[in-house]
Structures are given as structure tokens and as C-alpha cells.
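subagent[fold] <- orchestrator: predict structure for attached chain, return C-alpha cells only, no commentary.
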Amino acid sequence: MEQRVCTFYEDSGSGQPVVFIHPPALTSRIFTYQHQFLSTSSRVITYDLRGHGNTPSPSDVVSIPLLAEDLLALMDQCGVEKAVICGYSAGGSIAQEFALRYPERVKGLVLSGGFPQVASWLLQKEFRLGIYLAEHHPGVLVNGLSWTHQVTSQDGREIKAECKKGSPKLWRRLYEESLHYSCTKRLPHLKMPLLLFYGSRSFYFLPFRKVYQKLVPHVKTIIVPGAFHQIPVKQHQYFNSELSRWLTEIK
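subagent[fold] -> orchestrator:
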């Protein structure tokens, strides 16, 4: 059994627990605006995946199932019996795997820019670029991600500083794992409420909404006008407001 890690996390507010999962190479710093807004009515938990930010990794091994087990351990540590699990971008692969493995621990599932598998040529190219940059030019990758996920210049500086603490080797492996992950055939087993966010200009990801709408029983889809992919950050007010409303609906 793979060794457990000492996971760095932040925990604010009280009420319905909502756990946020970031994608490869980024960190939980991107969910600052969720802590600020949602913690007034919910318990917000964000954390760094192993090999990312302030969470070390005992080895170079990483997989989507392993990260789902890390999430289970974190929820147990925090005394959270049941939570809404929110995955952003490829963080959604971990969220879906966790929901499929431990449905009794999931009150609801939220995917922002989510996909059950990397099924399009354009998205495959994006992941292969992430793999290449993580291996050969991690500084370029960090600069790009921090720039595309900043609201203010201070955000950009802090995101960059947190990303640099991680392991490019683990980023590359997680990009590879995410590239080959698929849960499409298991989607009908997701019986909990599912909330989807997509930007109207997020052309790589928007088509996946139809897969979920076809295969998952209880789906609500929100398409954010004029938005690209980075909705929890760039459209955080809209995202937080709609998520808060949905949390009330599923109580």
C-alpha cells in the first residue's frame, strides 16, 4: 500500500462541507475566493495534492485512485463524514473517482470544466503540452498557469510562489495519469446531484456537458456567458453565487 502523506489543507467556515480539488501543477491557492465568499455559509476545505505546493510526496508514484485515497484520508482527518466534492479542470478526475469509489461520502459533485476522459484531439494536445513543459520547462508552465489564474497581480505572485514549491516530476506524472484516465462507462453510477460549470468560450471542454447529461441521472449545467476555462478564479463571484444557491437546493 502506498505511503500516506502529510496533506497541507485550509479549513474555514462552518456548515455543509465543500472540498475543492485543484488540477496538476497548480495548488489550493487558486481557491482563495471560495474561502472568502463561501465560508460565510459553508465549511470550505482546500488542499494541495501530493507533490504540489506544501504537500510533499514520499515517492514519485501518483495515480488518480491514489489521490482519491488521499482525499478519503483527509476527510477522515477533518472529521467530515459527507461533503460536496468540487473538482476544477483535471482535478475533476480525482473528484469523479472519489465519488465512484465512496458515494456514501459524497453529498453532491461539482465539476468546473470537467470531463470523464480526455477524448478530443485538442484536449489531448493540451495535456501533452503540460507533460512536455513539466519535464523540460517547468518555469514556463508555472508562469503560464499563474498568469491565467490571477485576478490581481498579487494573486499571480502568490500562485507562482506556491506552485514553485511542488515537484515538476509529480506534475508530469499527474498530467500523464489524467490524460489516460477514463470513467465514462461508470458515469451512470453517479447517483448524487451533479453540478457542471462551463465557460461559453471554453471550446475544449464545453462539449463534455452532453456526455454527463446523457449518462448521469441528476445533472444541472451552468454555462457562464463569455467565460473561458478558469471560472472559479476569473468568474469567482458568479461561480460562488451559483454554487451557493445549488448547495441550498440539495440540502
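orchestrator: received. Logging for downstream: DSSP finds ten helices and seven strands in the chain. The beta strands are 9-12, 16-21, 42-47, 83-88, 106-112, 194-199, 219-224.
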